[in-house]
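Researcher: Batch entry, complex prediction.
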Amino acid sequence: MLTTQTMTSHTASRQPESRVARSAPSVSTLGSSIELMGAPMPFSRNAEIYGENEPAEYLYKVISGTVRTYKVLNDGRRQIGAFYLPGDIFGLEIGADHTFSAEAIVDSKVLVIKRSTLIALAARDTEVARQLWTTTAGELQRAQDHIMLLIKTAQERVAGFLLEMAKRSASATEVDLPMSRQDIADYLGLTIETVSRTLTQLENSAAIAVPTSRRIVLRNRAALSRMNA
Amino acid sequence: MLTTQTMTSHTASRQPESRVARSAPSVSTLGSSIELMGAPMPFSRNAEIYGENEPAEYLYKVISGTVRTYKVLNDGRRQIGAFYLPGDIFGLEIGADHTFSAEAIVDSKVLVIKRSTLIALAARDTEVARQLWTTTAGELQRAQDHIMLLIKTAQERVAGFLLEMAKRSASATEVDLPMSRQDIADYLGLTIETVSRTLTQLENSAAIAVPTSRRIVLRNRAALSRMNA
DNA sequence: CGACCATTTGATATGGATCAAGCGATGTGG
DNA sequence: CCACATCGCTTGATCCATATCAAATGGTCG
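Model: Structure tokens for the complex:
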């Protein structure tokens, strides 16, 4: 699968690209140690990066593009665990296997880091150990926020999602969504129709504008925050 | 009820009690270092152990009883983050403050450990550092499972909850619930009425028996597992 | 015994799912 | 370059699972 294919094709991506410069603030702490150790690997749109229950030999850092992690239930329902933007680290496990699957949402470049290397390093370097812990704690924080989202109304979920994406984007008022309505729906625990209708509703109430389906302008952040909980 | 009764009989709780011996398997790793350092502290039913946003000076280990962590939204909706049984560690934060509130569900004894002590220890002892990380990773795992619960139907949530509690209990087929229907509802993102009706439904379908409202007998685990996802 | 609180049960309302079309953008083959 | 298929998104009509509102029941404690 992707593993082998992608592994082979990473000849020229040695020096840090400037496009990547706007990395994530909180989780990028592992940066210093990590940048050195992995090869940037390209994944095309919808390519699998790893599968649920596969051995977690590597962890990953998004260089460009966007990644989703997800689980699928017996009957096909899919739950997206998280979206990862440039600078974000994902796939770090403490157990032997990955607990989610991961896919590139758009063509993406991902730094691949061998876990054993990092673990070995952590045994000697307290700072690395602390950064591994911090990364896991960051994931925990996100998961807990996600739980709080899932008990809310559709409007609150969508508003919360937009605010979250805006906070993580470069521009605070304009969000460029790399993911489809289906991805959003599966993240929020709603249907695609409800997500669409809710966006229309928010647009009609002048809280947002939707110039194109993948671009959302936050017109009234206060209103969104108010309906966020 | 069981609450007071269990509490009153702890005159000699210096040496490990055999009743407590059946502690959690995964998260109890911090045990060895921790047991030495904290004082067991009693909390009575519904007593607050810490509040959301309070400085996280301590972390905690349940000795006896049960603890719930929760958040309350603006409009009063309460979400329970987790239930902690004897052996479980809770309240471990990496940030400065607690992100949930914690309360004893029944009269409980809780070991209180100063975080700074443990952090200092972790700086020298790799094993302690790893245990802190593992504890956080365990919480992450739980939170992710919780997310998967929250996208399911009422019946699936309740079945999943019962199976989870059974797995954590001493007896695999009989669950003694320390928490109220309201607590269960707020954990599962349902109303108390829906929880009650669903239990009745499961009882009618012979999947469970409910001899008393706080005691559930799993009569047909396979059926429960089947409806779990 | 009587009051209180937790739980169950019943009747009705409703938010979001489901089923079904329509629409606009993108791409493909003739 | 256009006709047409495809895909992602929106919109409409209806249904249903769960919430809400309301009352009855049962267990516990003073």
